[in-house]
From TrEMBL:
<dbReference type="InterPro" id="IPR009057">
    <property type="entry name" value="Homeodomain-like_sf"/>
</dbReference>
<keyword id="KW-0805">Transcription regulation</keyword>
<feature type="domain" description="HTH tetR-type">
    <location>
        <begin position="11"/>
        <end position="71"/>
    </location>
</feature>
<keyword id="KW-0238">DNA-binding</keyword>
<dbReference type="InterPro" id="IPR023772">
    <property type="entry name" value="DNA-bd_HTH_TetR-type_CS"/>
</dbReference>
<dbReference type="InterPro" id="IPR039538">
    <property type="entry name" value="BetI_C"/>
</dbReference>
<dbReference type="InterPro" id="IPR036271">
    <property type="entry name" value="Tet_transcr_reg_TetR-rel_C_sf"/>
</dbReference>
<dbReference type="InterPro" id="IPR001647">
    <property type="entry name" value="HTH_TetR"/>
</dbReference>
<keyword id="KW-0804">Transcription</keyword>
<dbReference type="Pfam" id="PF00440">
    <property type="entry name" value="TetR_N"/>
</dbReference>
<dbReference type="Pfam" id="PF13977">
    <property type="entry name" value="TetR_C_6"/>
</dbReference>
<dbReference type="GO" id="GO:0003677">
    <property type="term" value="F:DNA binding"/>
</dbReference>
<keyword id="KW-0678">Repressor</keyword>
<feature type="DNA-binding region" description="H-T-H motif">
    <location>
        <begin position="34"/>
        <end position="53"/>
    </location>
</feature>
<protein>
    <submittedName>
        <fullName>Transcriptional regulator, TetR family</fullName>
    </submittedName>
</protein>
C-alpha cells in the first residue's frame, strides 16, 4: 500500500526547515552551515532536509520563495485601496519593517555572496522585485491621474526609486531602529508636487 502523504504536515516541516535555515545562514553563512545543523535546529531528522529540498541551495532559495505569495497579496490588498499615496506608504511600511528582523543583515550578505553562484536564486529575487515594482507603478500612475502625485514623475522610474529606498533600509539595517518613519518621509517627499517657486521680493 502506498504511503499517504499529509500535505499539512509536509508544509509545516518545510516551513520549519526554511525558518531554521534562515537563522543559521544569517548567523554562520551559507557555506558554513550543514544540512545536519539545519535539521537539528528545525527539530527534524537529518534526512528530512533532502527529502523536502533537492539540495542546500534549494533550502536557501526557499527563504525568498516564501516572499512571492506574500508580495502578491500585499500588492493585491494595497492596489484595492482608494488612496494611492496611503497605499504606497502602507507597502513601504510592511516591506521595510522586515529590516528590523535581527537576521536581515546576515541574509542580505548571503544573498550578495550567493548571487553569482545560483541563477535560480536571482530569478526568485527578480520575480519578487517585479511584483512589487508593478504594484508601486500602478499606484503611482493612479495617483498622477487623480492629482495626488506629481505628474512630472514616471510611474515605472518612481517605482524603481521606491524599491531602492526600501533596499537601503536593509543595507543599513539596525534591529534597534525603526526605519519606517524616515522611509515614509522620503517617499512622501518623492511623490509630492514640487513647491511653487517663491515670488520676487517687492
Amino acid at each position: 500500500m502506498a504511503r499517504t502523504v499529509d500535505p499539512a504536515r509536509s508544509a509545516a516541516r518545510r516551513k520549519a526547515i526554511t525558518q531554521a535555515a534562515a537563522t543559521l545562514f544569517a548567523e554562520r553563512g551559507f557555506e558554513n552551515t550543514s544540512a545536519a545543523e539545519i535539521a537539528k535546529a528545525a527539530g527534524v531528522s537529518s534526512g528530512s532536509v533532502f527529502y523536502y529540498f533537492a539540495d542546500k541551495r534549494a533550502v536557501f532559495r526557499s527563504i525568498f520563495e516564501q516572499d512571492l505569495p506574500t508580495s502578491r497579496e500585499l500588492v493585491r490588498r494595497c492596489t484595492a485601496g482608494e488612496d494611492p499615496v496611503a497605499s504606497i506608504l502602507t507597502m513601504v511600511d510592511e516591506l521595510s519593517v522586515e529590516a528590523m528582523d535581527p537576521i536581515a543583515p546576515g541574509l542580505l550578505v548571503e544573498i550578495l555572496r550567493q548571487a553569482g553562484k545560483d541563477p535560480e536564486l536571482m530569478q526568485v529575487i527578480g520575480q519578487n522585485a517585479a511584483i512589487l515594482r508593478a504594484g508601486f507603478a500602478e499606484l503611482v500612475e493612479r495617483g498622477i491621474r487623480t492629482g495626488a502625485i506629481d505628474p512630472a514623475l514616471d510611474p515605472h522610474e518612481t517605482a524603481e526609486a521606491i524599491e531602492v529606498v526600501i533596499d537601503g533600509a536593509f543595507v543599513n539595517a539596525d534591529p534597534g531602529r525603526d526605519p519606517r518613519p524616515m522611509l515614509r518621509r522620503i517617499v512622501s517627499k518623492l511623490l509630492s508636487h514640487p513647491c511653487e517657486p517663491a515670488g520676487e521680493p517687492a
